[in-house]
Amino acid sequence: VALAIIYFTTNSVRRGLHHDHHAGRGEVGQAVKTALDVGYRHIDDARVYRNEEEVGAAVFESGYKREDVWLTSKLWNDHHDPRDVETLNTTYLDLFLIHWPIAFNRDGSVYNKELTDDPFPTWQKMEEMVAKGKVRNIGVSNFNIWRLSKLLSHPNITIPPAINQVELNFYNPQPGLLAWAKEHNILIEAYSPLGGDGQVGRTLNLPVVKEIAAELDITPAQVIISWHVQRGTVVLPKSVTPARIEENLQVTRLPDALFEKLEAAAVGHKPQRTLNPSESWGLPFDLFE
Ligand code: A2P
What we know:
globular, 289 residues, binds adenosine-2'-5'-diphosphate, 8 strands, alpha/beta, TIM Barrel, single chain
């Protein structure tokens, strides 16, 4: 379980804005410090959240050694041009992801068809960053199977993506992507694991979740996070509330029957994605199709 400390509302991502609605100054740093103190060692950040400095400072001020903390960041859409990929403020990152499979132009306009259709020139720069020791691992985010297969089968690829970070929750459980990624040795990270935009309350109040919580004497959020871990994913719950940050780290192993019950309930309905910026970015296609 990692702390996704970052506030970046769905609407602002949809509009492609970089500055509204993320957690206030100080709030993110405080969340990072709380998280490290209760035992988190993995912080999931991104360039577009505009708080890497605050996160870095919080880690430094916490007194934990850099090598004991796992820091992830993500390349924003307007930096896919090979000339722009390698810009880092830290000595190194543990994981660097291509945030979206959509390349914008360098001036921020949507979209760069060439680099979107073939992300390899961007990927090659990420590979170079590994060779230079700037990043330890590289991966992608929001890639579907088709886009991942295309990248994986590029004749010149030397480092396959280690990670694909995607929306994964009760309403969008993506069993097909999970199985495919496992087969191809790609680890899946779950963002919006509790339900995403507007769906957290609904998820935590599901009868099946509440029943399991009561039976095991844990909270509904702990049921959901434990389920994600048991599905073999890295879970990235987001919170700035100290009690919840602590709560979300207490993972248990669900008895098989209860795990299966929750899994069946999750995959047993029409999937519903909460975050899809295709339309607001004005793309002439759905980026997940
Ligand atoms: P807050 O940051 O105010 O604590 P997701 O990761 O699925 O996008 O969900 C993030 C949202 O869920 C945030 O609004 C966060 O609120 C809330 N949240 C995080 N952990 C819990 C929890 N254990 N119980 C209830 N709500 C939670």
